[in-house]
Fold these 3 entries.
Entry 1:
Amino acid sequence: MDQLDIARWQFGITTVYHFIFVPITIGLSVLVAILETAYVRTGKEPYKRATKFWGKLFLINFALGVATGIVQEFQFGMAWSDYSRYVGDIFGAPLAIEGLLAFFLESTFLGLWIFGWDRLPKRVHAATIWVAAIGTVLSAYFILAANSWMQHPVGYQINEDTGRAELTNFPAVLTNSTTLGAFPHVVFAAFMTAAALMIGVCAWHLGRGRNQDVMRPSLKLAAWVMLVAAVGTVISGDIQAKIMTEQQPMKMAAAEALYDTVAPASFSVFTIGSLDGKNEVFSIRVPRLLSYLATGSWDGEVEGINDVQRAEEARYGPGNYRPSVPVTYWSFRLMIGTGLAAAAVAAGLLFLIGRPGRWLIGTMRGARRGRSATGAAPISPTAAGPAGSVGTGDGGWGSHVPRWLWRVAVWAIPLPILANSFGWIFTEMGRQPWVVYGALRTADGVSPSVSGATIVLSLAVFTLLYGALAVVEFGLMVKYAKAGPEAVPSGAEDETTADGRPLAFAY
């Protein structure tokens, strides 16, 4: 590999690794704020314990996200100096605001939240985590504004003397249509990522009958957030696809491995064929779906790779404007597939812990014991044990859920993380050969004075550093996730609700 290939590998590895932590931070900050708000409004101790428990995992992840973000910045100045020089005037404004405003809100109010327990009034303390959560979301917006400028540069002019892009319209950068399409998609995906983590940890505890007063409401909250966010991700993704087709037709064509322009265009769920698109061995397709995704019409025309290549050559001069088709094709499908799989796990858990699921499991168990389906009674609170709990009595709430499904929920934690990673790989690889679409080629953004050996050395250092951080992150998250929430305060286990039910089962 030459210097450019090594620099691209370094950028890809550091960026994908950093973005493992970002969506968890965004999503968990809001979920923790919701739980503390529930505690302030109801005064129920389990909500306070849930807030502190998930807040601890949030803080661990936040610290690692900051560390990996700082390291990521080093590579821009070292391996991509020409790129940094070209975009510096544009990126300076949104990234400065991100650091001075958004990160200031995050760090300052997180400090107040951490040290303000039992020192600040409840409502003021809850407000601090909401301000910190708003800071994380704003931080994402300003960073996405910078990235979206690479996808669709607006509000600038080229200085002929310096060869740099110079900012002429900052509001245009902040209201870039690409930013407005990408922001909700990324935020909804972040909620899915945090919800998957919460669901998996709850599943680990509930499968063992532990900490049910905290894990039960946390599971319900996370599962509903997952499903709502999944719907939002699909809708925002559809909007983003249409924007992408208009601005980067080659990326959409490569995402489908569509070589010839067609109307209407089908969407291939799975295709095996030659890389040039001339031979197709096997394919599963949804008729007209690609036309709708790209144009909003079921009969819309979608340009193929060959036609877009000719148009790009006519506009920008001779060259290969095709990205890696296998990478874009499969990263697009893996992004969708892993995201939908995570949502399916959440839907399955919500169904089984609800009344229809309890009835179904009870009926199936009754049938296995030799009773007729009509004679099998649903699991009832009386049969389950403690008032208001659900199960067979051996594991408390949720013990009727098949144990394998709890395991699936735990192993599903990485699914949205993978979806995020595949999404960013698709976004960045599908834009090639441009680092700033239509303005600066990737080959022209690499540092001319830095040798490939130097980049390899820095990549090795980054790999070792990130490996050490991964061990620390994973170890701390697993340790505190398994430890569970803090012990029930003295006397709290005896509290009851207005109807006399134990507080632990009143969720």
Entry 2:
Amino acid sequence: MLRAGIVGLPNVGKSTLFNALVANAKAEAANFPFCTIEPNVGVVAVPDERLQVLTKISDSVETIPARVEFVDIAGLVEGASKGEGLGNQFLANIREVDAIVHVVRCFDNDDIIHVAGSVDPVRDIEIINLELALSDLAQIERRIDRVRKQARTSKEAQAELDVLEKLVPVLNEGKPARQVELNEEEELLIKVLGLLTRKPVIYGANVSEDDLASGNAWVDRVREVAKQENAQVVIVSAQVEAELVELPEEDRAEFLESLGVIEGGLKSLIRATYDLLGLRTYFTTGPKETRAWTIKAGMLAPQAAGVIHSDFERGFIRAETVAYKDLVTTGSMGAAKEKGLVRSEGKDYTVQEGDVMLFRFNV
């Protein structure tokens, strides 16, 4: 399951956005229970209209969406890397996530006091990024002390030491570790550290309702920062998300359209996260259930089968595969087969976005 950590300074709308996102997800997928694992963690369903279409085609009893776990990392303030605001606890939480959603305040509201006294998203980004970099730096320095002794007799330890020493100068400048180019082998050597500034970042520019469709000057400044970091920007409005929660599901699309947008923050953030991490979705469907599965782009059919169960990958024989659009156009798996649209794919097949698959395997 994909895990995304939501970070940001106090009073930027982070927790409001988190609470609205998980509530919206619960309403949009009523048969998928919202699950609170901890007070600041929520598992939500990935909105995907294709699931309902496939459910209708197969007359499935159950519909199971893919899931994303959002972690609301509260209390991240200046000095977090030194334990301020329970910083150590929350920084430890974020080491476990796949991607970071960094919420920055891009709205003005005299009733919501900014901790720094004014709205300046670039300054806010720099504060958070510095705390994350300092935390990574402290962790790497501790690791270097241990590995340096081992490096005298171990080539692997020496290789790890070389990678760690590449990262130190960048982090010393308060810059993220993701700016350092590493090869696949080097990445594996430091993977266990879960470096905060090595994780992919999406900046959630939190705007007022009036600026949701087009953004504003503050959003433009966030985009400039993101471009330098090779990060993504999604315009969201915690205010709008909170209002959506109060509306019946059938009225939500009309409300968003009145604001000049076609989707809410949950869909926008998840789509951006999937794109950033290079993720894809394939489906299995039948009378019992229709289900969405998340895989990495480029996965071969046996690997995709292994996402369901490791036995599927080990005993993989072939995958009966049809493109989602072809299945919808023909109206049934039987009709798709008659038209020759259902393919038998082997071990070398690269699974495509939206593939509908049935795996054949030996136990």
Entry 3:
Amino acid sequence: MFLKGKIAVVTGGASGIGLALAVRFIKEGATVVISDINEKAVNEKAIEIGATAIVANVAKEDDVKALVEKATDQFGQIDLFVSNAGIAKFGDPFSPEGDWDFSWHVNVMSQVYAAKYVLPQMIARGDGYLLNTASAAGLLVEFHSAIYSTTKHAAVGFAEWIAATYKGNGIKVSVLCPSAVKTPMAAGVAAMQEGALEPEEVAVAVVKAIEKEQFMISTHASIWPLYSVKSQDYDKYIDLLVERRAYKLALDNKE
């Protein structure tokens, strides 16, 4: 898909990767709707970059439904829906259930809701694109948070299911699995800064991938050797994770 003349919706669009994507999409000639839970920020950024702002809490199904309806009413259709909003909440099996539930709804169910409400119009046209932001933690592991890793694995799995199920209906799907990126979400964690890219660099890679209609969008080639071990020898992969965890957490302890 080439973005010129397309209508794109980007959630989590007031900052970080979402904002960088919106700016890049507009540069490519798309009409962009940015959505965010932060009303002040999304309205200010929309004016700044030349986008349309729609406030939504993507953890709520009714908000996602309204977002799709408002964007469609205003622009006639949605060609590309980017489920980018996410949350990085630290947690483990001992964390309160509310922490798990909130992350589950933001990182996974928001993407389910988006598909539920935007797919019907895309299927009817025989054309449409979903870009779901997950994380390299959905392919490997983020050692700081069981909550984050678990929900991002689920996001990757959902994107795979959508891609396999609706390809015959003309639906294209990409899943963005970035490693370290310099965003507010990763600020203050040393291990998340190692090799970190600027959001604008990620946006360039995303546009190139969308043009090729590429399913997996990765930002760091360094993850693939370990992922290759995972696909061939899971026990060895777990042992390597133990070593990698010690290294990553040691970076934080140096701060």
